[in-house]
Amino acid sequence: MGEKTVTIKDVAKEAGVGAGTVSRVLNDAVHVSPKTRKAVELAMQRLGYKPNAFARGLKSNNSYSMGVIVADITNPCFSKIIRGIEGTLQKSGFGMFLFDTEMDEEKVTQSINIMEEKKVSGIFILGEHFDTKKMLTDLYVPVVTVTSQIPICGYELPSNFASITINNERAAYSAMDFLCKKGKRKTVLLMSLADDENVGKARYQGYQNALKEHGIEIDQELLFFNQRLSMESGYECIYKIHEKGVDFDSIFAVSDLTALGAMRALSELGYAVPEDIAVVGFDGIEQGAYSIPSLTTIDQPRFLMGETAAKIMLDMIHKKKVLNREIILDFEFVERESTGK
Amino acid sequence: MGEKTVTIKDVAKEAGVGAGTVSRVLNDAVHVSPKTRKAVELAMQRLGYKPNAFARGLKSNNSYSMGVIVADITNPCFSKIIRGIEGTLQKSGFGMFLFDTEMDEEKVTQSINIMEEKKVSGIFILGEHFDTKKMLTDLYVPVVTVTSQIPICGYELPSNFASITINNERAAYSAMDFLCKKGKRKTVLLMSLADDENVGKARYQGYQNALKEHGIEIDQELLFFNQRLSMESGYECIYKIHEKGVDFDSIFAVSDLTALGAMRALSELGYAVPEDIAVVGFDGIEQGAYSIPSLTTIDQPRFLMGETAAKIMLDMIHKKKVLNREIILDFEFVERESTGK
DNA sequence: CTGAAAGCGCTTACAG
DNA sequence: CTGAAAGCGCTTACAG
């Protein structure tokens, strides 16, 4: 890339200054006289100078890059968050390594290994991962989780952690309260983890709260835990419950993709949505706005979550005091056709 | 990350060899006696040694990282390709920088800048981009395009280029031939670029070929070019054509997302799919299999395309002779409900 | 505010 | 097959 590499020395000679000075204008940290700065900048431009990231990193130990670990990159909810992160990082000149783990333990380990070698300045974790906590706590870089949290209950939040979420308990409560008010009493719950001291637990709590408030008992037969949050899993769950002959009048899936898969199964099995079965999803992905029927959902501000995560991360690595490291953004309950709008 | 960094010197001392030797086992290029190798490996393990990517890169100019430029990461077609690339690269210990450009000229430039600084060993381009050719030809790294091609007609393909596509002309032909045989004579065409010496041109050619063969004249009113391949654009096109009162009996969208958006608009406007209007998409994303009705489409082997791209790239940077650098993978025409199955 | 110099942790001819 | 040494292109105290 570029014929002969032009180094800081070339620039220094061209500008008639020392190499250290060029370095200083590059990192514009210390004071450099405006005049000198100008001269150096001109020289850099004339020579088409590009700093060598390796050399910079070797000395400063700052890689100008970050890493993102995502459970499922094909889920549009996550890709939208990634877009938010990437755009923000790019503006600050950071590169973003991406690792798609499919929740595979080994891939997570390998990803972390690569990130260590690359000396990323920070790691983002999107979605639920088993046991990442263990691996990450002895890393010394900041970690920001998005949509999920690292379960560190009972202890003070380590200064290198932050999380961007919505209030998952209230979100799940909203969805269920809405369904209950519609007269639904038999809601199938499609969940991933529910006992993780984390998002899953909060959502399940919201589910329980709403039912309790409406005087409805929980029916174990309607609960599906540990599901992968894919279209396929939603689809299969509905077939399963139908085959078992369990009666139900609505579905609350903790992911739009899963809800969409469920709707497809309902259609194949001859249930009408929303007449027979009302469906509520979670995430707010675009596909839910265009599906037939369109999907009622909890809209997480995905792009904003990504942006916010990146900004906080940037603050953390610049050693700024970040006092609010457990950020809870507003969600929006979006009513659409799948619940009869 | 790691308390005190253990360097190659520490390993050398621990193993009782020279630093150069440690380096040699690390890069297992040159011959090292099995005995020495063993000793070094043991020492590395004992000390928990992690090579410093900066130092390696500075000397060898090999970053062990690649860059991916994608037009729209929220499109599941691309994210599946990315999964294929990432998985393959990871196995070889490469990190993958991701840049989501949304086809914005400036973001592309900035992305390329960052990649130059990071000295990525190769660049993948997914989807259509305007004028990337210009920027990339003076880069000295290999470039592999996936789903699209860099238009270099009339010249020999530069040795640092490769492309992974399907036969887009035949694919589009298949879709249109199928529609024509169903008796459709007024197919709305939803395209992005059509005059780009590239994928778009090929697809449009296939469209024309099929119509010609069936003795159907092209109706300009049915042609939508330069569309963004999103759900929204598909949706809007249908509203536009409906408002103009143009008669049509089917839709061929060059992207599943666009087709899905179109189906939503049709539903809102009271058209029945497939009874009134047949719809065919392109890409083969999962969402099309679960939509209601399910979507007939051209299935591009997305994951395989990503894997193949990464493998070719690895071959190219390892200076292996790659004779087949314009790889054309098989597509599959998948018939579903949106055309009456 | 700025220059000279040391050194970050590797790789790679150069000898042997 | 292996060791000693130079050097990759920066950054950063240290002086001034």
UniProtKB/TrEMBL annotation, chains A, B:
<dbReference type="GO" id="GO:0000976">
    <property type="term" value="F:transcription cis-regulatory region binding"/>
</dbReference>
<dbReference type="InterPro" id="IPR001761">
    <property type="entry name" value="Peripla_BP/Lac1_sug-bd_dom"/>
</dbReference>
<dbReference type="InterPro" id="IPR028082">
    <property type="entry name" value="Peripla_BP_I"/>
</dbReference>
<keyword id="KW-0804">Transcription</keyword>
<protein>
    <submittedName>
        <fullName>LacI family DNA-binding transcriptional regulator</fullName>
    </submittedName>
</protein>
<dbReference type="Pfam" id="PF00356">
    <property type="entry name" value="LacI"/>
</dbReference>
<keyword id="KW-0805">Transcription regulation</keyword>
<dbReference type="InterPro" id="IPR010982">
    <property type="entry name" value="Lambda_DNA-bd_dom_sf"/>
</dbReference>
<dbReference type="Pfam" id="PF00532">
    <property type="entry name" value="Peripla_BP_1"/>
</dbReference>
<keyword id="KW-0238">DNA-binding</keyword>
<dbReference type="GO" id="GO:0003700">
    <property type="term" value="F:DNA-binding transcription factor activity"/>
</dbReference>
<dbReference type="InterPro" id="IPR000843">
    <property type="entry name" value="HTH_LacI"/>
</dbReference>
<feature type="domain" description="HTH lacI-type">
    <location>
        <begin position="6"/>
        <end position="60"/>
    </location>
</feature>
